[in-house]
Amino acid sequence: MKIINYEIGALDISYTVETIKGHVFTHAFPKDTSSKNVERYLTLLSTNVDERKAKI
Fold first, then answer.
1. pTM for the full model?
2. Could you tell me which residues come within 8 angstroms of residue 38 by beta carbon, excluding any fewer than 6 positions away?
3. How far apart are CA 56 and CA 14, in angstroms?
4. For the purposes of burial, counting CB atoms within 10 Å of the CB of 46, is it exposed (0-12), middle (13-18) or buried (19 or more)?
5. CA dihedral defined by 52, 50, 29, 39, rounded to 10 degrees?
6. Can you tell me whether residue 9 is helix, strand or coil?
7. Vertex 2, ends 32 and 53: CA angle to 5°?
8. How far is residue 39's CA from residue 35's CA, in Å, rounded to a whole number?
9. Distance of alpha carbon 26 from alpha carbon 3, whole angstroms
10. What whole-number distance in Å separates Cα of residue 4 and Cα of residue 24?
11. Phi and psi for 25 in degrees, rounded to 5?
12. What was the pLDDT predicted at 26?
């Protein structure tokens, strides 16, 4: 997983992520989410995206 871009909004931070298999997705978290939790959730989402794309 690699964060390729982020955008800071008024209430949240939107991350654009590239998965290990090259898929790209965007997800937003509230500004008060800790960096450790952001990394944990984005890693989980990245794995789920790769698994779902493999089934298609």
1. 0.90
2. 13, 15, 29
3. 26
4. buried
5. 140
6. coil
7. 105
8. 6
9. 10
10. 9
11. -145, 165
12. 98
Q: Tens of pLDDT along the chain (56 residues)?
A: 999 999 999 999 999 999 999 999 999 999 999 999 999 999 999 999 999 887 76
For 9, phi then psi, to 5°, come to -100, -175
Cβ within 8 Å of residue 21, ≥6 positions away? 50, 53, 54
Helices (H), the chain: 35-55
Neighbouring residues of 18: CB distance < 8 A, sequence distance ≥ 6: 1, 2, 4, 24
